[in-house]
């Protein structure tokens, strides 16, 4: 078992009333799964991903990640946990504009205090694997959307995470680029990386081996397979 | 990691050129000021710190209490030099010397005459025992044993004997005042460290017996104190200054003489630590040409530097927190990639460090320039070479570190606090940070700037007031010509006066002593006795012939002028008349005042005029003729009123110089305009004013740069709003007002806070002046209006451009 969510509630107060962002979400994820989370805008997909990624907190419920109870961990421990095991891919890529492709991919390694020689080798491997060696000195603004997302994925993978969280990874891409990215995810999944993606698109969702439907922060059970 | 930080810091600096420039300029101004001022402080505080056991060295000084007030004298009565050795205990070493002012000196083997040579003292071997010099030739034990011996410093030896090797200088003869000779018996190195003991020529004390002032130098009488007689002691290890002081007190009680009792004077001997010497304002040091080292001015300077640094820091904090939104995305990403808060803070501190470093590097260059620009203000010895010292390196590093933390820590803290999930979505926690800290900081900035502006206006007003107020005598078109002081006779001067009178460009002339307002005033005790009481009053004495009062347009209120130039008859001023208890000018005419135990007749009363700067009030004064003419004349200055300026003063001055050179060939021609003399009274005020001008200019500059940065930032963010408003029909003025309003409020608030602060500070400053200018309301109004107008102008630079933009564009880009 990679992670387990038990009865997670998250809400904000609006005019004295609770508005639920996540409403009683329970979810078990095994290693090697590829899960798609679907739902309309505002249904809580991103919030759920943020909670799983430990970027957001929740008010009630339990969250176990590799048998550690995340909800009781201190901030420092939590960040150590996700630094080690989780990689993020964003719809808007979120590369650092002031850093080159090479430096963007290298950054997570810096935060893990990996030695310079080892960093070089790892980044070189990654550039090689995604066929972007020639672009390593370019800045994000000089790349197309698809290329930027490739860099984003390379960056998410560089620290060898067990879990990749992808929030609408193809949302800003055209269909051909999107397909390539999804193929890449499938490949990664076959290599053993667990992937959870949030998506609007049925066809993208179909790449996953499990689909979770969200509506107004609640899990819809009719479509699980 | 570090390289990555530096790289991104550098790219950030480079991508935001305008903001980086504002930050660097603001910090560099403060740093340059701090560097220059730091050098000055370092320089002034490292005088005479190198003497062996300097902490045990003291100067023996004399304090006087008289009915006219207290006086401090840096000298001692001559017998004291023996008393410290023979009567006092606990003193390890002592050195007595006499500051010897002579009219000329020359090497016997040379023709070159040195006029008014300085830095000569009469002293003994003990001087060299107390103050350690390096001996090039001769020895401290024997060099000053006999009369007519002299020790020179290397520098002085080269001046006297430019063509001789130092070894050949030994045994040469030097002539003083043409009649006293001394043989060079030793040569020492000049002090290579900073010292107030700047003497170059040490003549054996025994030689003093051949001089005119031998009584003063070697007298056995305890009654006289000359501030040229200087005595230094080193107390022994086991005794304390307090012990010596109590012995000195006993000594002063032992030597009370009849005159002191009669005039109700009290003299006490005191000790001044060597460390206090350099900043001394009361007892005097030796180098008169050096501007006084003033601790208060140094402290004000340090405050100015701190203010400027704070202002720069504030800009940094304001601009960086304002820009936070633009960096929010990067922060969000870094956090999701695993950066901790600390790592982010370190990163931002690193960026601040880089900026500060850039500012510091440019400041080092700027301060070298500043040292040149502020040449008249900065002590002569302070130059760029002082920068090459561990002390300066420490100052630079220290300031960089402090500034980095001061400016970088808060923005770093704010930025690192962003929640990544929200920062990435671009929704910033605006409710948490409405920029209230920014407002507080901006207001403080403008309070500082505003106080400076107000102070500048008032100080200038006071200077204008002092220079232009009526002193009670003629000051324009009056000049005076000083004659050589060695000439003790009046004869040549009468010829000079006669010759100048004949010149067509001179309308009035008088021969006399000093002008009515000057720094040098002789005083005498005047006693007025009636049957039942006597009034003792200190009187200033002016000397002048019958035309003196006419040249200076001073009215006589009652009585007459003295009958001739040498008769002992006196005219007194109104203040003097009142001091002796008279209210009606007619009453004092014909009365006798005792001066130097002789009864002297008051023949007239003149109108009061202001004898010195307006800092001090009018003091009792008498005018008389040349009463001591047969011994030495007091008429040493020719006072003259020049004719119409249009007819050309320069021609007249050239003629006067010709006449002068004919009568005094080879002497310097020293002609001074009285208004210039009066302006010189206010040299210190002028220096304060120029300092304030700079402080004001720089603080206003920094504050306005910061304001500009903030306005640019907020205006950029409101592009869309402005576009919509414009489409809806807002005018340019309305838009401009809208954009400036929030900042104008801050400037106005700062103004309101500054008014009482400035009022209080300036009120205190004015207390030093007897004649003060008014603290007019318009000074405060003007400084406020000036600041608001300036702020508006600076802001409009950006806001107008934004408001002028085509709304279609700004709406599309959103």
Q: What are its keywords?
A:
heterodimer, A: 225 residues, alpha/beta, Rossmann fold, six-stranded mixed beta sheet, four-stranded antiparallel beta sheet, 34% helix, B: 814 residues, alpha+beta, 4 domains, six-stranded mixed beta barrel, 17% strand
Largest interface: A-B, 27 and 23 residues
- Named CATH architecture of chain A: 3-Layer(aba) Sandwich
Order of helices and strands of chain A: EEEHEEHEHHHEHEHEE
CATH topology annotation of chain A:
Rossmann fold
Number of strands of chain A: 10
**Count of domain modules of chain A:** 1
Structurally, the number of domains of chain B stands at 4
Radius of gyration of chain B, in Å, reads: 34 Å
Oligomerization state of this entry? heterodimer
Question: Segments of chain B where pLDDT lies below 50 for 5+ residues?
Answer: none
Give the topology, please.
The complex is a heterodimer of chains A (225) and B (814).
Chain A: E1 3-14, E2 17-29, E3 34-38, H1 45-52, E4 60-65, E5 68-69, H2 75-85, E6 86-90, H3 101-111, H4 116-129, H5 145-157, E7 163-167, H6 175-190, E8 194-199, H7 202-205, E9 210-215, E10 218-220
Parallel strand pairs in A: 3-8, 3-9, 6-7, 7-8
Antiparallel strand pairs in A: 1-2, 1-4, 4-5, 9-10
Chain B: H1 2-15, H2 17-44, E1 57-66, E2 69-73, H3 80-86, E3 91-99, E4 104-107, E5 113-115, E6 120-123, H4 125-130, E7 135-137, E8 149-153, H5 154-160, H6 166-169, E9 173-176, E10 180-188, E11 201-204, H7 214-218, E12 229-235, H8 241-254, H9 258-262, E13 266-273, H10 295-322, H11 324-336, H12 341-373, H13 390-416, H14 420-425, H15 436-468, E14 478-482, H16 491-501, E15 506-512, E16 522-529, E17 534-543, H17 548-551, E18 556-559, E19 569-573, H18 574-579, H19 585-588, E20 592-595, E21 598-606, E22 621-624, E23 637-642, H20 649-663, E24 670-673, H21 674-681, H22 683-717, H23 719-727, H24 732-766, H25 777-804, H26 807-813
Parallel strand pairs in B: 6-11, 8-10, 17-22, 19-21
Antiparallel strand pairs in B: 1-2, 1-12, 1-13, 3-6, 3-12, 4-5, 4-9, 7-10, 8-11, 9-10, 14-23, 14-24, 15-23, 16-17, 16-20, 18-21, 19-22, 20-21
Helix pairs in contact in B: 1-12, 2-10, 2-12, 2-13, 2-22, 10-13, 10-15, 10-22, 11-13, 12-13, 15-22, 15-24, 15-25, 16-20, 22-25, 23-26, 24-25
């Amino acid at each position: 078992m990679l992670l387990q969510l038990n009865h997670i509630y998250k809400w904000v107060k609006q005019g004295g009333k609770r508005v639920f962002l996540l409403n009683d979400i329970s979810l078990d994820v095994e290693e090697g799964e590829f899960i798609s989370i679907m739902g309309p805008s505002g249904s809580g997909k991103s919030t759920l991903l943020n909670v799983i990624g430990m970027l957001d907190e929740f008010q009630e419920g339990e969250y176990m990640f590799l048998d550690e109870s995340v909800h009781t961990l201190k901030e420092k421990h939590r960040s150590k946990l996700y630094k080690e095991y989780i990689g993020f891919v964003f719809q808007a890529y979120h590369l650092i504009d002031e850093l080159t492709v090479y430096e963007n991919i290298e950054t997570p390694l810096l935060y893990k205090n990996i030695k310079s020689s080892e960093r070089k080798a790892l980044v070189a491997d990654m550039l090689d694997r995604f066929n972007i060696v020639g672009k390593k000195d370019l800045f994000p603004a000089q790349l197309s959307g698809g290329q930027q997302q490739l860099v984003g994925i390379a960056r998410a993978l560089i620290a060898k995470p067990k879990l990749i969280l992808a929030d609408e990874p193809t949302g800003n891409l055209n269909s051909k680029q999107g397909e390539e990215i999804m193929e890449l995810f499938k490949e990664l999944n076959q290599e053993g990386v667990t992937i959870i993606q949030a998506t609007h698109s049925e066809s993208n969702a179909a790449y996953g081996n499990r689909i979770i439907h969200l509506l107004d922060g609640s899990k819809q059970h009719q479509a699980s397979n | 990691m570090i390289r990555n930080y530096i790289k991104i810091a550098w790219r950030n600096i480079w991508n935001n050129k305008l903001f980086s420039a504002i930050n660097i300029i603001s910090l560099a101004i403060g740093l340059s000021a701090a560097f220059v001022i730091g050098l000055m402080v370092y320089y002034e505080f490292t005088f005479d710190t190198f003497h062996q056991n300097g902490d045990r060295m003291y100067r023996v000084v004399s304090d006087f209490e008289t009915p006219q007030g207290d006086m401090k004298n840096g000298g001692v009565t001559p017998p004291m030099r023996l008393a410290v050795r023979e009567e006092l205990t606990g003193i390890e070493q002592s050195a007595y010397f006499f500051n010897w002012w002579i009219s000329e000196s020359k090497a016997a083997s040379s023709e070159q005459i040195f006029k008014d040579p300085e830095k000569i003292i009469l002293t003994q071997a003990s001087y060299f025992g107390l103050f350690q010099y390096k001996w090039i030739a001769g020895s401290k034990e024997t060099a000053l044993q006999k009369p007519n011996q002299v020790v020179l410093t290397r520098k002085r030896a080269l001046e006297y004997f430019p063509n001789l090797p130092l070894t050949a200088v030994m045994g040469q003869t030097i002539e003083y005042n043409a009649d006293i000779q001394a043989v060079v018996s030793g040569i020492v190195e000049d002090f290579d460290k900073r010292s107030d003991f700047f003497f170059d020529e040490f003549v054996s004390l025994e030689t003093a017996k051949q001089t005119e002032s031998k009584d003063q130098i070697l007298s056995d009488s305890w009654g006289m104190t000359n501030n040229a007689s200087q005595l230094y002691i080193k107390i022994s290890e086991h005794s304390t200054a307090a012990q010596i002081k109590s012995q000195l007190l006993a000594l002063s009680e032992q030597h009370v003489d009849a005159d002191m009792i009669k005039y109700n004077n009290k003299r006490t001997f005191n000790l001044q630590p060597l460390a206090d010497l350099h900043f001394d304002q009361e007892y005097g040091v030796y180098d008169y040409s050096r501007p006084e080292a003033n601790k208060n001015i140094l402290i004000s300077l340090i405050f100015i530097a701190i203010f400027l640094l704070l202002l720069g820091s504030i800009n940094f904090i304001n601009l960086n927190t304002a820009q936070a939104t633009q960096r929010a995305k990067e922060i969000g990403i870094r956090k999701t990639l695993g950066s901790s808060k600390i790592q982010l803070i370190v990163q931002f501190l690193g960026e601040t460090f880089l900026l500060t470093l850039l500012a510091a590097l440019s400041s080092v260059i700027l301060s070298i320039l500043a040292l040149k620009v502020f040449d008249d203000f900065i002590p002569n010895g302070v130059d760029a070479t002082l920068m090459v010292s561990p002390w300066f390196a420490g100052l630079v590093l220290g300031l960089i570190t402090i500034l980095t933390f001061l400016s970088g820590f808060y923005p770093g803290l704010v930025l690192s606090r962003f929640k990544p999930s929200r920062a990435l979505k671009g929704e910033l926690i605006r409710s948490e940070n409405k920029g209230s800290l920014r407002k507080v900081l901006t207001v403080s900035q403008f309070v500082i700037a505003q106080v400076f502006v107000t102070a500048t206006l008032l100080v200038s007003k006071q200077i204008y007031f002092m220079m232009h107020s009526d002193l009670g005598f003629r000051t324009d078109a009056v000049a005076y010509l000083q004659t050589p002081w060695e000439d003790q006779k009046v004869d040549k001067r009468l010829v000079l006066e006669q010759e100048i009178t004949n010149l067509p460009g001179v309308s009035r002339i008088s021969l006399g002593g000093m002008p009515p307002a000057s720094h040098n005033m002789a005083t005498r005790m005047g006693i007025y006795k009636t049957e039942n009481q006597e009034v003792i009053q200190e009187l200033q004495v002016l000397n002048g012939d019958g035309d003196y009062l006419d040249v200076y347009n001073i009215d006589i209120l009652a009585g007459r002028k003295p009958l001739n130039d040498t008769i002992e008859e006196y005219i007194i001023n109104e203040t003097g008349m009142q001091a002796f208890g008279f209210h009606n000018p007619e009453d004092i005419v014909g009365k006798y005042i005792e001066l130097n135990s002789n009864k002297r007749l008051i023949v007239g009363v003149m109108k009061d005029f202001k004898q010195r700067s307006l800092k001090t009030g009018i003091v009792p004064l008498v005018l008389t003729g040349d009463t001591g003419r047969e011994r030495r004349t007091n008429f040493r200055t020719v006072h003259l009123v020049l004719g119409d300026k249009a007819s050309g003063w320069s021609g007249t001055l050239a003629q006067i110089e010709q006449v002068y050179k004919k009568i005094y060939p080879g002497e310097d021609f020293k002609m001074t305009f009285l208004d210039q003399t009066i302006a010189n009274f206010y040299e210190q005020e002028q220096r304060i004013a120029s300092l304030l001008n700079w402080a004001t200019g720089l603080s206003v500059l920094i504050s306005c740069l910061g304001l500009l940065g903030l306005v640019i930032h907020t205006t950029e963010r409101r592009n869309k709003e402005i576009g919509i408003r414009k489409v809806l029909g807002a005018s340019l003025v309305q838009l401009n007002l809208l954009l400036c309003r929030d900042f104008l409020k801050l400037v106005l608030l700062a103004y309101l806070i500054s008014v009482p602060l400035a009022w209080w500070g300036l009120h205190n400053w004015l207390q030093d002046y007897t004649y003060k200018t008014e603290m007019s309301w318009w000074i405060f109004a003007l400084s406020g209006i000036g600041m608001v107008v300036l702020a508006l102008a600076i802001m409009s630079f950006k806001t107008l451009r934004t408001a002028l933009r085509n709304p279609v564009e700004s709406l599309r880009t959103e």
